[in-house]
Amino acid sequence: MNAGTLVRPKPGQLDVHSIAADGLAARVDGRHVIVTITWWSGIEPCTVFDHVEVRRTGDSFALTLFEGHGPGNPICIEIAQRFRTEVDISKEDLAPGTYTITDGTGTAPAIEAVVS
d(Cα 81, Cα 104) in Å, to the nearest integer? Predict the structure, then answer.
């Protein structure tokens, strides 16, 4: 399956709204968990990845993707493309343990990451 085009957030888009992820994958790097999020969306400038919101509750992290569109009123073709981005879910070292990671929209299946 297509892993998706790697994209970085471009904050400041117009009409920003949450979108559903279709997949989550995690890798542990020392005391950090890096999550790859995949989703399907349209192409720029009609849909532009704006940011990821990370909410932590105890040992659970909910990641929500947000996208919007660029300025102007371009003519948009209806074509879907698979995208992916990577997020370090914590700003600090995580304590050893098992962490549950979910899509904030509830669409992608939850995953777990174990920090040693």
Answer: 21
pLDDT in tens, 33-65: 999 999 999 999 999 999 999 999 999 999 999
| Distance between CA atoms of residues 114 and 98, nearest Å | 4
- Looking at the 3D structure of the chain, how many domains does it have? 1
CB contact at 8 A, 32 and 54? no
Residues in the chain where the model's pLDDT stays below 70: 1-2
Task: Please tell me what DSSP assigns to residue 110.
Answer: P
**Token pair for 101:** 């990671």
In this prediction the pTM is 0.93
**Pairing state between β 81-88 and 48-57:** unpaired
> In terms of residue numbers, what domain contains 48?
5-115
CA separation for the pair 98, 58 (Å, rounded): 11
